[in-house]
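User: Batch of two.

Assistant: Item 1 of 2:
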Amino acid sequence: MKNSLIPTIVASLLASLAFNTAALSAPGEKAPPVGKPLEIKFTSVDGRAVDLAELKGKVVLVDFWATWCGPCVGEIPHVKEAYEKLHPKGFEIVGISFDKDKAKLESFVKEKGMTWPQYFDGKMWDNDYGKKYGIQGIPAMWLVDKKGNLRDPNGRQDLAGKVEKLLAE
């Protein structure tokens, strides 16, 4: 490997780490409200009414993400696979987009076959739900149990396995 590539690789790894620390909280930051219900209610970009409180009895992935986030886009195949396998058993997904361009988000979601509802406010890092729940990096994938409580603020690791366990409860 040429030495000229090392700074580029290191910079890329550091950027990736910055995106992957969403579930961690530094002193003074909001910690994920594990064991408590999440208040999320909105009209999705496709017009569907979404209220997490009305999804009790289902396991829900709350996916904080953006089309411009490489690691987020990289997770889409895994999320879709889990959704296609487990949706008939009671698995739902709610996307919380950190995008600025609504048309780009709608086009991207359609192109990728992401059929679950998407929240959009166009505020990027000032996203209302991102600020409310202290999201400092994306992707952040939170799993909500059938009682409506946040159970796992790191749903990225073994998503399908974790969903199956929560569905079995």
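Item 2 of 2:
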Amino acid sequence: MSRFKKYIVSWLLYFGIVCLAFLIGTFVPNPITENQIIKRIELKIKSELFSLNFFEPEFNSNTELEFITSVIKCVDFLNFKIESSQRIPSELILAQTILESDYGKSRFSVEGNNILGIRTFNKEDPQMKSKANPNAKWGLRIFKTKCDCIHYYIRLLNNHKAYSEFRELRIKQHKLGEINAIELAKTLTNYATDEKYIEKLIEKIIEMQETKHSNSLGIRG
């Protein structure tokens, strides 16, 4: 065999080995290679998600504007992960958080991350007692984060029998493509014991609309 033919055979053999290694590595990767690929993909995904603010946003309430912005970011974050028909309007949640926590300044908000006045009658739940009623059978539930509190609130409205009227109206509004936070607020009579709660809630929503918070801060339903 001539030197030229030997060179061709050697080159073809080398090329065949490289191709075989590539195919094996592609379809049957070894554990080390596979883990490296997974890590690279995970880092890429995390990088993209961070750029989209997909992870639970930090909650700041040093000022009223920071509180409002934090609530909206949290609601957007939570609503992104559920069906549109299950979402709670940002206007409604924001109005309630302001009423219940005074822009995050209340004791229950500061010490227990409870910005929605959520009560619990379960003694096993972490909770805080009201100073005005320390012997009550209920307490204000303690949450890990303020965004976690909003998450609980969304699940509450989506599942508790006390808010079936809310869900029925939301279905009708969703089908029409017109979500009205004020009309939805009228169905939350079971949310608080204050007889004027709905009136206060609607006034707060209107106030936000009139001061153009919904436009300047990008509030979405």
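Strands lie at 119-120, 127-128, 139-141.
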